[in-house]
């Protein structure tokens, strides 16, 4: 058991076992909910801090950090206690700051355009680790004077498939939205999935206020199965049925991500077929010009071409935007920084 993963009761039991008065339990709980390590729990006696240190903390530390000169985006590489490295990104928007968090070290989904999955999934992240990313970012980039915290929005769009780490992700969502924790509104949290259909239905029950994004990337099963192996298990019809269920149940539009890949899914005929597929679903299409990954051999499209594709969808009454490009100068895309650092370490 790790401090950062414990429930209040588990903390009370673990701290109580050191034979300290109840107010100490409260102090430790408050620190842990802020993601603070025992050595920094400054109102505790030294010997209690040493006792607390006999149980592993279960958090992350900042291993590397790149700041974009273009837009202030910060890419973090976090080190976990077992030595694994995983990425997170802080993006600054006019409405607030969004962090993009990873949910697994690597990924098993095997999407053909993605750098995170090249070497499979090493392991899933625990809720305490995901909470620790947030705490480390808050410490590294403290809020402006009038603001309670730096981070206002979270997107689970880093490496990993969140619904392949379902229980830990739902626990994380519960804790990150709680008043005892970072208290971030569920409406400010988006979860992106490659489309594990049964887990989408489960998520609608367990976290209905979280914004659902689904990586679609194609309008036909033929192309989607080539790009995303998961489509063989859950074909596009089932994915869109689940998207519809989310929209109907929550009254909120589902976000469909569509990476534009040169010559594969980016023609006007593709836009037309996509629009036909999406008719009647309360949704918004988020277009991403593919960020080409060297090992993958797929082409991107220009931003101006992506805007044309967006217009083709709009003309067919499908709401669409081109995703803003953040941190292009710091390897902002999934898995790229981790991959480069690992390659450097391995020589
Ligand atoms: N596993 C989740 C979240 C991870 S990635 C999912 O599949 O949704 C977040 C988004 O970035 C997904 O839509 C993913 O398909 C997309 N993506 C991954 N690699 C990309 C690349 N090289 N260029 C553009 N988008 C990419």
Spell out the key features of this protein.
single chain; alpha/beta; DNA polymerase, domain 1; TIM Barrel; 2 domains; 12 helices; 20% strand; binds S-adenosyl-L-homocysteine
Please provide a written account of the structure:
- With 347 residues, the chain is an alpha/beta fold.
- It has two domains: 3-52, Orthogonal Bundle (DNA polymerase, domain 1); 60-346, Alpha-Beta Barrel (TIM Barrel), CATH 3.20.20.70.
- The chain has helices at 8-16, 22-33, 46-52, 127-140, 166-176, 197-206, 221-227, 230-233, 236-250, 268-278, 303-315, 336-346; strands at 60-67, 74-80, 85-93, 96-101, 104-106, 121-124, 153-156, 189-193, 211-215, 254-260, 283-289, 320-322.
- The strands form two sheets. A ten-stranded mixed beta sheet has the order 1-2-3-4-7-8-9-10-11-12, sandwiched between helices. A two-stranded antiparallel ribbon has the order 5-6.
- The protein starts with 7 loop residues before the first helix and ends with a helix.
- The relative contact order is 0.12.
- It binds S-adenosyl-L-homocysteine.
- The site of S-adenosyl-L-homocysteine (SAH) has 18 residues, from strand 8 and strand 10.
Radius of gyration: 21 Å
Distance between the termini: 34 Å
Please list the strands of the largest sheet in the order they lie side by side.
1-2-3-4-7-8-9-10-11-12
The biggest sheet amounts to:
10 strands, mixed
- Approximately how much helix is present in the residues? 25-40%
Poorly predicted parts: none
What is the H level of CATH, i.e. the homologous superfamily of the largest domain?
Answer: Aldolase class I
- How many domains make up the coordinates? 2
CATH topology of the largest domain: TIM Barrel
| CATH domain class of the largest domain | Alpha Beta
Q: What is the architecture of the largest domain at the second tier of CATH?
A: Alpha-Beta Barrel
Beta-strand residue percentage: 15-25%
Shape: elongated
How many helix segments?
12
Bound chemical compounds: S-adenosyl-L-homocysteine
Q: Which structural class do you get from the secondary structure elements?
A: alpha/beta
Oligomer: single chain
Order of helices and strands: HHHEEEEEEHEHEHEHHHEHEHEH
